[in-house]
């Protein structure tokens, strides 16, 4: 073996083993400063919330901690504690704006310690923390959300004005218990001081001092917390693929699109992109809840992937986003972990069916064969063609049907969904539809004879990838199996030029398969039992069994992450991106319009269609979408 080969073999130590041999990496200065602010904020928050704590030995410790400026009201301690907690999160993420706020808050803490408490120890601790922040100011360079400062200022002005107005009403609404007749100037001064946690010049009887003080403190707390949230919230820029970016991505897909079945999904309109310095590779991503989430492998030449990955990581460091990759292949995972030092975990398997080897004959395909034959005997017929070959009226009918058969208000999907059916942009995509004429005496549906549809996007020059499948719930079961078989047979018999078809992605497929084998250990059986239990709400086992019907080739897919502690956050961001979790406020339900009880003049009474089984009307519309 040559020296070069020996060096290559010796350097081929897995990244996880190298990190284990090096031991845990020491905590960075921003993380330590953030942890200190968290502890201090929690103590200040506890001293303001629990009255007994302000008269205990713990309060003696809190007296020398920086942050609690005013000893006159518990609201001030609560406000400062919450501010420190919010600043701690931003300091850990190296946010420049959090550093500026902390540097501005600590001198106030020093003044409070010296003027109100006469505590030299507390002032020294505040100065020490301020000195650490100033010394390591270069490490706090992450850019904030450019929209956060504007909305924070607007919120502070508007909500602050509303708080002052409401506070003045609270103060002036108690003339019977107010001592004396203070002028309006003193009343407004009492409101302003109460909002920031100080005791004002007014005095009340019958215990109304506490009511007014806590009311004003709550208004000030609401103003400060909402403003701080808008100022320090994670940056979530609006992702938008420009026309120039789309043109460059299509050129890369034309040259290297056959490498990854998820490559075409990079053309989603709600993704951003970074290109390598040479322009021969790109990484598409979306920022969700502070997570910079990429999907699939980088687009383009494999030799240029490291340049695009380096740009991706630089953008993540610049904004202090958490980098993550969902659903990359084994080759992509190796490049990501080698170039960045990130870690990888197997997420599931992608089902790929080779058209040349697919057949309905044999014992393994008996269930699919019987289901397809039964549906065909019931009068269903299929059509498979390119999207560009559909006439505009038929394409519009397919779009409307797909939207009506969706069970959510918005389209789901991020890593394996395109979110559109467009003949101009995606003319090479394949549409498979199922049709059935209404029986005699049965009214036609809103979309004519259309009963189900599936949409496949291009995968290089000789493959397609399943993007969407929808069906009318009033149709017979097995529509998805029928259309997949029809697509595979059309790809083999017609001149579609398709040699491979990528189906749904099955999460944790290997765990489900190994857990049901003979001799599986208790850990595997327990893990499989948990996945089966979660399948009641998420399509985990059902997608695996559905894909396994077609005897596919399983291709593993991985999630790439920085730290194990980031996995829950990455998983939550991925569920947001896929559309399974939404943090938006729920919409108010629309009231149904009142319809006349009988037919209008010249109208015939409507006929009620009764399907087999005696059920009337239309069943709830649901969809099956791969993760």
TrEMBL record:
Please name the InterPro entries in this protein's record: LPG_synthase_C, PG_lysyltransferase, tRNA-synt_2_TM
Membrane topology type: Multi-pass membrane protein
Q: What does the UniProt entry say about where the protein is found?
A: Cell membrane
Superkingdom? Bacteria
* Keywords per UniProt: Cell membrane, Membrane, Transmembrane, Transmembrane helix
Which residue ranges does UniProt annotate as crossing the membrane? Answer: 29-50, 70-91, 98-116, 122-138, 150-171, 212-232
Q: Which residues form the Phosphatidylglycerol lysyltransferase C-terminal domain?
A: 250-560
> Is Transcription regulation included in the keywords of this UniProt record?
no
- Which stretches does the entry tag as region Disordered? 591-627
Q: Assign the protein's first listed, main location to one coarse class.
A: membrane
Q: Where is the Lysyl-tRNA synthetase N-terminal transmembrane region domain?
A: 27-228
Q: Where is the composition biased (Low complexity)?
A: 607-620
Q: What is this protein called?
A: DUF2156 domain-containing protein
Q: Which source organism does the UniProt entry give? A: Streptomyces pactum
Taxonomic classification: Bacteria, Bacillati, Actinomycetota, Actinomycetes, Kitasatosporales
């Amino acid at each position: 073996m040559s020296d070069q080969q020996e060096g290559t073999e010796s350097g081929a130590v897995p990244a996880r083993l190298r990190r284990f041999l090096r031991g845990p990496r020491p905590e960075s200065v921003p993380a330590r400063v953030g942890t200190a602010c968290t502890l201090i904020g929690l103590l200040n928050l506890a001293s303001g919330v629990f009255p007994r704590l302000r008269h205990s030995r713990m309060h003696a410790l809190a007296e020398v901690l920086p942050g609690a400026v005013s000893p006159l009201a518990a609201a001030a301690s609560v406000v400062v504690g919450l501010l420190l907690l919010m600043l701690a999160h931003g300091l850990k993420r190296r946010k420049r704006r959090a550093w500026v706020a902390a540097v501005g808050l600590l001198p106030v803490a020093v003044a409070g310690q010296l003027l109100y408490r006469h505590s030299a120890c507390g002032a020294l601790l505040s100065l020490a923390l301020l000195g650490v922040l100033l010394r390591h100011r270069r490490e706090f360079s992450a850019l904030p959300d450019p929209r956060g400062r504007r909305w924070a200022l607007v919120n502070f002005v508007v909500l602050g004005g509303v708080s002052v107005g409401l506070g003045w009403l609270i103060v002036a609404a108690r003339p019977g218990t107010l001592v004396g007749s203070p002028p309006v100037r003193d009343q407004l001064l009492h409101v302003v001081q109460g909002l920031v946690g100080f005791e004002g010049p007014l005095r009340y009887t019958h215990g109304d001092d506490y009511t007014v003080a806590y009311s004003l403190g709550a208004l000030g707390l609401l103003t400060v917390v909402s403003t701080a949230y808008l100022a320090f919230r994670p940056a979530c820029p609006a992702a938008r693929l420009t026309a120039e970016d789309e043109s460059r991505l299509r050129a890369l897909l034309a040259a290297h699109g056959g490498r990854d079945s998820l490559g075409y999904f990079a053309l989603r309109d709600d993704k951003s992109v970074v290109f390598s310095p040479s322009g021969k590779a790109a990484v598409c991503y979306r920022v969700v809840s502070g997570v910079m989430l990429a999907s699939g492998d980088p687009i383009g030449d494999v030799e240029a992937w490291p340049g695009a990955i380096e740009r991706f990581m630089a953008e993540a460091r610049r904004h202090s986003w958490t980098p993550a990759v969902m659903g990359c292949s084994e080759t992509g995972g190796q490049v990501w972990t080698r170039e960045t030092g990130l870690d990888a975990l197997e997420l599931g398997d992608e089902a790929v069916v080779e058209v040349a080897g697919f057949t309905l004959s044999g014992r393994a395909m008996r269930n699919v064969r019987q289901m397809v034959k039964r549906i065909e005997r019931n009068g269903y017929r299929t059509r498979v063609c390119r999207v560009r070959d559909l006439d505009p009226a038929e394409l519009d009918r397919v779009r409307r049907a797909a939207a009506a058969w969706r069970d959510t208000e918005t389209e789901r999907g991020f890593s394996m969904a395109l979110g559109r059916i467009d003949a101009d942009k995606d003319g090479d995509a394949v549409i498979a539809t199922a049709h059935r004429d209404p029986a005699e005496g049965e009214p036609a549906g809103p979309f004519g004879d259309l009963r189900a549809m599936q949409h496949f996007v291009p995968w290089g020059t000789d493959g397609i990838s399943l993007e969407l499948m929808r069906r009318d719930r009033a149709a017979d079961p097995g529509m998805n199996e029928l259309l997949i078989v029809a697509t595979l047979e059309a790809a083999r018999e017609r001149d579609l030029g398709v040699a491979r078809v990528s189906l749904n992605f099955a999460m944790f497929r290997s765990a489900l398969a190994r857990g049901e084998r003979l001799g599986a250990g208790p850990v595997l059986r327990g893990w499989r039992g948990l996945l089966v239990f979660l399948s009641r709400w998420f399509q985990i086992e059902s997608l695996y069994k559905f894909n396994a019907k077609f005897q596919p080739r399983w291709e593993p897919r991985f999630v790439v992450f920085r730290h194990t502690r980031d996995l829950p956050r990455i998983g939550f961001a991925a569920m947001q991106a896929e559309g399974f979790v939404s943090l938006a406020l729920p919409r108010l339900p629309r009231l149904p319009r009142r319809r006349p009880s009988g037919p209008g003049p010249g109208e015939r009474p409507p006929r009620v269609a009764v399907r087999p089984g005696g059920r009337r009307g239309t069943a709830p519309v649901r969809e099956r979408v791969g993760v």
